[in-house]
């Protein structure tokens, strides 16, 4: 029986790259996001193993219904990838309370809420499951002007370890991927507009180049596979050595 996966923010960038790897491995992949057009275009490229669900995960009240719909339709949920997230680049003193809370809502609370509902479904089915959270270099070392994002990703890594300890005895492995600087439209725009930051990124990445979204996709596919059946609670940097670079 084919596995059922949910990837949030699966319509573009790293989320789409993970979805591409999953469908190639014959995993039925449900990509969730707010932008219907973006999801539709992604699904066109991904083929019959892909399904889309339009949902604003910051509206926490709709999450239980979303998971119920998926579980009723497919009878199981095997994999959840909490990839959806937003960033805010601003001087520390200019970040408002509302902006800080919005980042935490999107990047942490929504991921927790969705994980909780998916875990309930996994436990109902009494089958092993796998959850992957997505972190960032912002939680590996200090980055300026992204205080809210940094706080959210540090929380994600702590949640990964706590979830792994509590859920692994029940057959649900929980791991985290910390992407380095990956060549996506969003990162390209950010780095090209800030030559000093780009130079800093490249100088501390031992492999000397930006990663590809597919590199994250490969890591996610590995962590969800039987080849990783004894791996839980890890934060895996996929970063060309950036997190340990000098």
From TrEMBL:
CDD domains: SDR_c (cd05233). It comes from the Bacteria. Belongs to the short-chain dehydrogenases/reductases (SDR) family. This is SDR family oxidoreductase. GO terms for molecular function: oxidoreductase activity, acting on the CH-OH group of donors, NAD or NADP as acceptor. NCBIfam families: PRK07231.1, PRK12826.1-2. It holds the Pfam family adh_short_C2.
């Amino acid at each position: 029986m084919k596995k059922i996966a949910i990837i949030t923010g699966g319509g573009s960038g790293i989320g789409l790259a993970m979805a591409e790897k999953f469908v190639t491995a014959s995993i039925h992949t449900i990509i969730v996001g707010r932008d219907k057009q973006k999801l539709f275009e992604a699904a066109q490229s991904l083929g019959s193993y892909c399904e889309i669900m339009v949902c604003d995960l910051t509206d926490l009240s709709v999450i239980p219904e979303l998971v119920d719909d998926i579980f009723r339709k497919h009878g199981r949920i095997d994999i959840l990838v909490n990839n959806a997230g937003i960033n805010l680049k601003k001087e520390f003193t200019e970040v408002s309370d509302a902006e800080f809370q919005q980042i935490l809502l999107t990047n942490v609370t929504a991921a927790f809420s969705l994980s909780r509902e998916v875990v309930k479904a996994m436990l109902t089915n009494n089958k092993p499951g796998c959850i992957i959270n997505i972190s960032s270099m912002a939680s590996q070392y200090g980055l300026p002007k992204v205080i809210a994002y940094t706080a959210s990703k540090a929380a994600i890594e702590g949640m990964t370890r706590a979830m792994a300890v509590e859920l692994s005895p029940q057959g649900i492995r929980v791991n985290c991927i910390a992407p380095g600087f990956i060549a996506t439209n969003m990162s390209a725009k950010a780095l090209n507009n800030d030559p000093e930051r780009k130079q800093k990124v490249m100088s501390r990445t031992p492999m000397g180049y930006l990663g590809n979204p597919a590199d994250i996709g490969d890591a996610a596919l590995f962590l969800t596979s039987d080849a990783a059946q004894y791996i839980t609670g890890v934060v895996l940097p996929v970063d060309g050595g950036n997190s340990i670079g000098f």
